[in-house]
Amino acid sequence: MKCRRHFFIKMIPFGFSGGSEYIQSSEDTFFSVFHITYMEQFLWNVIRGYVALLFVVSMTILISVIIERIMAGVVVICFYWVFLLIMEKMISFDVNHLFANFMPLRLAGSTDFYTRNEIYRFAGRAFDSMVWCPAVDLFLSGVMIGIAAWWLHRKTTGVRII
Predict the structure, then answer these.
(1) Spatial distance between the Cα atoms of 15 and 8, rounded to a whole number of angstroms
(2) Which of 29, 56, 51, 26 is nearest to 131 (CA)?
(3) 4 vs 141, which has greater pLDDT?
(4) Considering only CA atoms, which of 22, 19, 26, 18 is closest in space to residue 36?
(5) Which of 89, 94, 120, 140 has a Cα-to-Cα distance from 162 of 20 to 30 A?
(6) pLDDT band at 81; cut points 50, 70, 90
(7) Which positions ≥6 away from 76 have C-beta within 8 Å?
(8) Hey, is 123 helix, strand or coil?
(9) CA-CA distance, 28 to 25, in Å (whole number)?
(10) What is the pLDDT of residues 8-27, one digit of tens each?
(11) How far apart are CA 52 and CA 48, in angstroms?
(12) What pLDDT does residue 1 have?
């Protein structure tokens, strides 16, 4: 998140050519294993932020459709955000690797994607967390929107939902 805030401040002295400097020139991302520039890092941060926003919106839609009561949906979303804040403070590789890296707070504002090279293995292939986490969140967002649309369709056609 610090990188996004200071992106334009870092670019002002160098102009647009400052975007071609590598992120290893910053003390925050000096140990980055990725050979990317500030401009590429900024674009990755924007993409991850939009994916996190899409995930939160699709989850809110799904909860609102299933619960059918606005206040109950608000309570569930508030408990979810408290849970995310608690997960953000946990320092455990297993918790981070299996759960927290896919959550919106970590996805939208963490430099851990650049300084720690976490590898996810799926179907015999290895993926960096910088690519895998947004891809999984996009897939989960599509599944949640699909379930919400199916639930609304079943409800409007009069089919009894258990």
Answers:
(1) 9
(2) 51
(3) 141
(4) 22
(5) 140
(6) confident
(7) 63, 67
(8) coil
(9) 9
(10) 665 565 566 666 666 666 66
(11) 6
(12) 47
Query: E strands of the chain, at which residues?
Result: 119-122, 125-128
- Chain-centre distance of CA 18, in angstroms? 27
**Span 99-152, pLDDT tens digits:** 777 788 778 776 667 777 778 888 888 888 888 889 999 999 999 999 999 999
Give the closest residue to 19 by CA, choosing from 33, 1, 31, 3.
3
For residue 125 the two structure tokens come to 């292939």
% of the chain at pLDDT higher than 90: 14
Helix (H, G, I), strand (E, B) or coil at 13: coil
Residue at token pair 């000096």: 30
- Answer for the pair 106, 89: CB distance below 8 angstroms, yes or no: no
